[in-house]
Amino acid sequence: MPVKLTFIQPDLQSEIEIPYFDYGVSAGFPSPALDFMENKIDLNKALSENPLATFYIRVEGHSMSGAGIDDKDVLVVDRSLEPADKKIAVCFIDGEFTVKRLSKKKEGLWLLPENPKYEPIKVSDESTLIIWGIVTYVIKKV
Amino acid sequence: MYALVDCNNFYASCERLFQPGLVGKPIAVLSNNDGCIISRSDEAKVLGIPMGAPEFQVREQLRQSKVHVFSSNYALYGDLSQRVFDILRQFTPNVEEYSIDEAFLNFDGLDENLDYHDYGLQMRNRILKWLSIPVCVGVAPTKALSKVANKIARKFPKQTSGVHVIDTDKKRIKALKWTKIEDVWGIGFRLSKKMKDRNIYTAYDFVDPRHRAWIKLQMGVVGLRLVNELEGQSVLELEAPLTEKKTIAVTRSFPKALNDFDALRERVSTFASVCAEKLRAQKSCCQTVYVFLKTVDYPDGKRKSRGYQQLMTLPFATQSTLTLVQTAVHLLTEIYRRNPDLIFAKAGVIVSQLCPENEKQFDLFADENPKHLKLMQAMDHLNQKIGERKVKIGTQGEKTWNMKQEKLSPKYTTRFDEILTITCR
What we know:
The structure holds two protein chains of two kinds. Chain A is mainly beta. Chain A has a domain at 42-139: Umud Fragment, subunit A. Chain A has one helix at residues 43-47, and strands spanning 54-60, 74-78, 88-93, 96-105, 108-112, 121-122, 129-139. A seven-stranded antiparallel β-sheet of chain A has the order 1-2-7-3-4-5-6, with no helix packed on it. The N and C termini of chain A lie far apart (80 Å). Chain B is an alpha+beta fold. Chain B folds into three domains: 2-165, Reverse transcriptase/Diguanylate cyclase domain (Alpha-Beta Plaits, 2-Layer Sandwich), CATH 3.30.70.270; 169-230, DNA polymerase, domain 1; 248-386, DNA polymerase, Y-family, little finger domain (Dna Ligase, domain 1, 2-Layer Sandwich), CATH 3.30.1490. In chain B, strands 5-6-1-7-8 form a five-stranded mixed β-sheet. In chain B, strands 9, 10, 11, 12 and 13 form a five-stranded antiparallel β-sheet that branches. Chain B has a three-stranded mixed β-sheet with strand order 3-2-4. In chain B, strand 5 (95-99) and strand 6 (102-106) form a beta hairpin. In chain B, helix 4 runs antiparallel to helix 5 (116-131) and helix 12 (261-281) runs antiparallel to helix 13. Strand 1 of chain A pairs parallel with strand 14 (420-423) of chain B.
């Protein structure tokens, strides 16, 4: 009996996306970890609770070394947080940026360094101060 | 209800975020290539620095008035613009990004008893605190009225705190009477002159029924829609974002006038290759290539600046840098061959007839060398990895490629090696 062949023209124009599984199809045992797969750690998300208000700033100098902020470290700064006593803040005082710990005393606000070689700054009535943002993390290369 | 949120002097405000010392000082931002003034802070406006003026014409004035001048830093402005829109989305999901510094919002589906003035203040305060960018908010029942309300908020910051709501007919009429016809959304300079000839001086005059027929004649249905909108009947909705552009244009003024063919070829090649890159980024191909050149204004005043153009439709749609550059250079050669003595001030490459890359029509007899695709993928990959378009084709030179950006601030938010550095003394 002759073999009857029917030729079917493939339609190469249309696109159908077929899901591709690169696991579990071969005869082996599927990985028991698959059910527990999570996304990889994204430091961008982990270190900025509010990405819309977060900026990265590099530090030069040693006045905050006692707080773990050293020369060339990168700060994660969140502008949405409210300034509060004992927070470390990026401050713009009298025309210059600096990083200091805020300290609310009876006599007024102080910007405290964390290095005995540096003097605390008293925020006087004459000084113009902008608290630019609150430091939330320090990134350092070791 | 709709709102228009507009950032005040957006580019200048972006520069101030990282240079707070410039708050209260005059700032001017220049266009690409440091050509003209495209943004001014309020202080620079007060000094009479003209908008759109070529930099070289006002250089002395800028220096004398101690205006802080910046090249445009679109990496920074683009990032902050996106942040502004994302903050607005925390208030309503319905946000139309109208321009880099303006958005229309719609509040359908939100609490009906919402205090819009208070809500607007919250937006304003959040954007100001998080990004130090001042915005004005205009709220009204229609888009055109929200533009009017915005203008009032901007003009009367003390009375409005930067937020104005038109929610009664009394307020609407007061606002229309205050709004000059040339400030109405969609009424350009020419049209407003015609209007004034008919004694239409304000938005209130414009909606007067007596003018309806004339407006229809002049502006067609667009004009009638505008009348409806200004009367408080909403006919314009938020527009969905255009995900794909219909044409892509790359045009630049030259830092100095050019006559040399090689120099022109370099420019046109570069513009064409940027077009190709943009096409690939949005996964499109183009079928038409258009090249134009504009001559300088001759100082003798006898000959005025003139444009020359050439267009070619390709037998196949493409996104290949090689094909586009070759075509653009061919068109340039045509223009140059006929006008070898001209001195050019500006050139551009525009590609159109775009189609998605996976839907391109094949021509039986002409198609692109399939190797182009792989080459382009490799080139894009390398350029993304190294940055700054290091891999390019032969006709793109080394030198003239760079834009003039002498006063460019760092890309504080998009380049890790350019983030703000502060000294802790």
